[in-house]
Please model this.
Amino acid sequence: MNLNLKLKSPVSTALAIGVGIVVLLGYFFGNDPSGEATTLGLLRAFLLQGAIVWAGVAMLVGIFNLASVHLAKIRANEEASYSFILLITLIITLGIGLYDIVETFTQQEINFQRTSWIFNYIQLPIETSLMAVLAISLTYAAARLLARRLNLISVVFVGVVLMLLIGAMPQVAAQAPILAEIRQWILRVPTLAGARGILLGIALGTIATGVRILTGSDRPYTG
Amino acid sequence: MTAANMNLADLIGLLIGFSFTIFILSYILGDNFLFRFATHIFIGAAAGYASVVTIYNVILPQLIFPLMNGGQGEMILTISLLIPSLLLLAKISPRLSKIGNPAMAILVGIGAAVAIGGGIFGTIFPQVSAAVNVFETNNFLEGAILLIGTFTTLLYFQFNSKQSKNQRPAIVQATKLIRWIGKAFIAITFGALFAGVYVAALTALIERFSFLWTFIKELVLPAALG
Model:
């Protein structure tokens, strides 16, 4: 039998499998019968703490990549004005934040007033407004669903949405308690059943993906 | 909210918040440069804010301060965290990107193990245990619907079964029916999720209109009318 195994990035693959197995075994053998952490448990805790740090570093690398992509767009004069705005905002926010951090440590007192100002008056209004626009987009999407794909499933979907929204209105619940009861039943029985099935499906998919990584079938870290 | 009891920074902040709200809501009329301007500002500010939070809460206390003030044992542990961190930084450069692969592999390996553990202990065990105990808390009909709903929804996700030519038509029909029932339960669940998201979005819309009206009533109108 000719296996013809062509292993790409053997060091990275061995590291991913080894570290993953240690963390996974730590779930089962992390504590001895008296509840004390075993060596495996301590190693797992260290790796999990490390994962937090490395995820933080990876996020900074991602943000640097975002900045470099927009810098390249400016150089290529491709929607340069928007990229310029993004970069300037990023640099100003980062600069103000770093200034707040330095001041916090030099004055031995937490002081993030300037960063909080950016969060409260720039990020929060934009985020909430985007959420508000979503209300209109969702209404439009639901109307389009019925117009474009009128079948029993789409009618069930829109019917459930309407029933849940109408049943949630206090005036309706007072005038027609049956509607509020139907709403409760929909949430308690069929919605729960579907959600449970979806959750189990997601969990099985996640486990399958994790196992593929831990067996080296998937190597998303190469490249 | 009156101009008299506010400092200049808050006043400017409210004006900026008012402007950005109008810019974003202008999307209702269609994609335009005001909306794009606001979203790019948002991405820049969010990325900057996320960097600051990461540096303050993770990088400084876990990587920098232990090296400066920690004992010998703490320093060794920190150096063992620092080496993969430095390797990860190589991912910034496309030429040096491969140097960062081992560090990325460690991160992915830990992530995969945590995902498996979370999936088993956080979802499969509790959900299966709840699914098998449905008849304890519900009446028989509700329990049966819950069980059928869970079962058919789960079966709907099975995409790998190929239909062979020799398969009996009755089995094909039964599979189709089961998957259709699963689809109906998924439609109900997504309908409930849609309604929840819609109510949250509607609340945000009402809050934004309330903010715009309060801003105009308390700050713009008094200034305009003298």
User: Anything to note?
Assistant: Chain A touches chain B through 122 residues (CB under 8 Å). The helical segments of chain A are 10-29, 39-75, 80-107, 113-148, 152-167, 170-175, 177-188, 190-214. The CA atoms of residues 67 and 87 of chain A lie 6 Å apart. The longest helix of chain A spans residues 39-75.
